[in-house]
Write a sequence for this structure.
């Protein structure tokens, strides 16, 4: 972390996950003065992944923590400044964008928002303790670990059904556990799921506890209408009960979609010139480390292009 951050930059990046760090590698290598602001662990959500098998270049896979650290190291090599602070607001003033944080305000000519999203949790005993040991929030990431094993999916929306359909290509059986007696997913998604012989449904049921010592072994369930309790033996449970984009600090500044995600074009530009968004925070993002990294690189390249006319009019010292 930089001991004392300057107050003016060409580019400020909000969020230090794969999208933000990739953007930082590109902007710093392009010799743009750049600051990345991260409120938690640099590396972002990928740091929660025990083993990442689908990020190119690592033939044996790599731990999420190590992948994040390598990205940070690479960005630091090119001079990216990093500050630990929470971004609380964004103010637009002509050419300048003021990023308000818990460590004071910083100004930039361009801002790349890469603050990601939080997956909804069940908040039940065993969930945190067994995360990465059978409790997963991402079928695309973890389905291959459950080849020919029975797994459970908790949720009833499009995301949950899409996770179930993906898992059905690997698992011996996929049990969708939903607290209501009908899905929230679209009819077409439901039809696909019902046509898949490996998918079964447990209606009006909630998971009360995830049990296991070092790995998931079983789920404790409750039928909401009868109150009857039961157990389900499984080694994998995929939680898909919503996603919350980290965009609270943008309310009233930037148009967001109905779920709070940022709408961009394919150059990662938002409706406001000089404000870009990258990674899981974007509407319709596939929410993968590699796609987030690609978005970050794209945002940085177009931020550099955006700054070209400004840089020739008002030179700014480069770090
Ligand atoms: C358990 C788990 C396993 C996964 N496994 C894989 C896998 O195997 N392969 C794969 O490709 N993907 C995997 N993913 C998905 C992957 O982690 C994400 O797609 C990727 O991290 C998204 O990158 P991002 O930079 O867009 O956002 P994030 O990684 O979410 O980073 C956003 C960062 O912004 C910070 N932030 C948010 N708000 C603020 C604020 N107001 N101020 C300052 N900082 C803020 C957050 O602290 C966070 O560090 C996994 C995810 C999880 C949770």
């Amino acid at each position: 972390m930089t001991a004392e951050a300057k107050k003016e930059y060409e580019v400020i990046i909000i969020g230090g996950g794969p999208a933000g760090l990739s953007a930082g590698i590109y902007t710093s290598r392009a010799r743009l003065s750049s600051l990345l602001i991260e409120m938690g662990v640099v590396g972002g959500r990928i740091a929660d992944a025990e083993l990442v098998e689908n990020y190119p270049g690592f033939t044996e896979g790599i731990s999420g923590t190590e992948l994040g650290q390598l990205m940070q190291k690479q960005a630091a090599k090119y001079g990216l400044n990093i500050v630990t602070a929470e971004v609380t607001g964004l103010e637009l003033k002509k050419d300048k964008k003021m990023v308000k944080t818990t460590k004071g305000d910083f100004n930039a000519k361009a801002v790349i928002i890469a603050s990601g999203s939080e997956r909804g949790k069940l908040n039940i005993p065993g969930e945190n303790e067994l995360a990465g040991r059978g409790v997963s929030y991402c079928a695309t990431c973890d389905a291959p670990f459950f080849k020919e094993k029975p797994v459970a999916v908790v949720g009833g929306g499009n995301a949950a059904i899409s996770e179930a359909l993906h898992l059905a290509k690997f698992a011996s059986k996929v049990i969708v556990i939903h607290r209501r007696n009908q899905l929230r997913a679209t009819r077409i998604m439901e039809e696909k799921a019902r046509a898949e012989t490996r998918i079964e449904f447990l209606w009006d049921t909630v998971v009360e506890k995830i049990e296991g010592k070092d790995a998931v072994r079983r789920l404790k369930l409750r039928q909401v209408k009868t109150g009857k309790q039961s157990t389900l033996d499984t080694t994998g449970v995929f939680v898909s009960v919503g996603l919350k984009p980290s965009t609270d600090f943008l309310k009233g500044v930037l148009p967001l979609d109905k779920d709070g995600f940022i709408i961009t074009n394919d150059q990662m530009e938002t409706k406001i010139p000089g404000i870009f968004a990258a990674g899981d925070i974007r509407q319709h993002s596939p929410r993968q480390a590699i796609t987030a990294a690609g978005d970050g690189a794209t945002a940085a390249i177009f931020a550099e292009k955006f700054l070209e006319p400004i840089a020739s009019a008002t030179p700014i010292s480069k770090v």
